[in-house]
């Protein structure tokens, strides 16, 4: 079983490998939506997303983000606060050809907004079912928590 520090390291690695998350404002009554996270290794407990100014998340506020890794072996639920960030230097730093595909006007597209998600806390799961656990799954046995993988609640995702 991995400890909380290892799970936090795995979170950032997995987000780099498959940067798609579901993000929504809590209490808004609206569903979460898929977004591509923009990671800045210099920012602890912070995620960025390029969105349209007309996007429902642009209103900001308390938010949740969920992540499932490409291999379906790592899961994260992050809570925090979302808000529009006007920092032009950060837009320049995070800009990519993939972002430009969504904003034909480039970095100066009038609809472009940079959504900043400040992580308040997170819950992380990594499934790493043991060989014994896999056999139990195959034959209908009961899997003990120690055979299922790792889990941690963390106040910071900093590694």
TrEMBL record:
Residues 8-137 form the General stress protein FMN-binding split barrel domain. InterPro entries: Split_barrel_FMN-bd, Stress-Dev_Protein, YdaG_split_barrel_FMN-bd. It holds the Pfam family Pyrid_ox_like. This is General stress protein. It comes from Sphingomonas crocodyli. The lineage of its organism: Bacteria, Pseudomonadati, Pseudomonadota, Alphaproteobacteria, Sphingomonadales.
